[in-house]
Amino acid sequence: MSEALFKSFAIVGAGPHIGIPIVKAFLAIGSPILVIARPTSTNTSALPDDDPNLKVVRADYTSASEVSAILRENKVDVLISTVTFIFGGVVVQDVLADATKEAGVKLFVPSEFGVSPPAAGLTHEKHAFAVYAKSIGLPTLRIYNGLFHEFVPWLAALTETGKFHIVSKGDMPGSFTAISDVAGYVAHILTTQPPSRLLDVEVRIEGQRATLSEISALYKASVPVVHCDALPTEGVPAADVRTRYQQGFDVGRASSGWNPDTKTDDAELASKDNSLWEGHRWLTVAEVLGL
């Protein structure tokens, strides 16, 4: 007998970067999804108001009992978290994990959507959450996709300065994947893969493998390229976070194939789970940025 697929999905942290696109990806394939929004969130205004497969409720993410009651009431199989790292949302995931476990949800998809996080340093909170989820016996599916194509101008401080900043040489490759590809992939594998393929698993995908120097060349000299030791801080929010992310390129840490334990990158590993979306054509950086 074939294994029954997951049927009921919910998402928390449905913001404009990856959360809303994931919701829309589920709706695009006709799959119902529950959006659990914060009481004051206005992000839901970006969602269609006439799709019968979409349900929106509001809850306090810091209240495990409130979130758990919603999950039980809606018989949710899978809870997806897209809370933001930059603005501290990842720290509420312990509460969401408690709610998920208490409600009997079968799988939690934590807010990763980057590279495999270290135990210490940038994004260590994501590693700490994985340890916590394991300690309470909550199955997780962690998705690594490198950097979103759309975030390249942000990473290089191009948006704020009009210049493409590269920290160090920019000659080591990293992983880049379009937001639409990541969102579509999440919806696809959760609705087509048997639970046994997804429980307590790390999946690694890559839309394009490239160096920052190669990406800067796509602009064809339309913007200045500046090599620097660190991004400028004036008028550049979270400049230190961007600098540290770029520094990761030099050692392979910007790849979906990065292993924080061995501190090595495996180029083949970086895209090994692309195959779960058979026949899909992955977008390039140039296509997404219109270069």
What does this structure look like?
This protein has 291 residues and is an alpha/beta fold. 31% of the residues lie in helices and 17% in strands. The chain contains eleven helices and 14 strands. It is globular and about 55 Å long. The N and C termini lie far apart (49 Å). The mean pLDDT is 92.
Keywords:
5-stranded parallel beta sheet; 14 strands; 291 residues; 3-stranded mixed beta sheet; 17% strand; alpha/beta
The gist of it:
With 291 residues, this protein is of the alpha/beta class. Helices cover 31% and strands 17% of the residues. Helix 1 (19-28) packs across helix 7 (179-192) and helix 2 crosses helix 3 (93-103).
Structural class: alpha/beta
Mean pLDDT: 92
Helix content: 25-40%
Low-confidence stretches: none
What is the strand arrangement across the widest sheet? Answer: 3-2-1-4-5
Number of helices: 11
How are helices and strands ordered from N to C? Answer: EHEEHEHEHEEHHEEHHEEHEHEEH
Give the termini distance in whole angstroms: 49 Å
Please indicate the percent range of residues in DSSP E strands (runs of 2 or more).
15-25%
Number of strands: 14
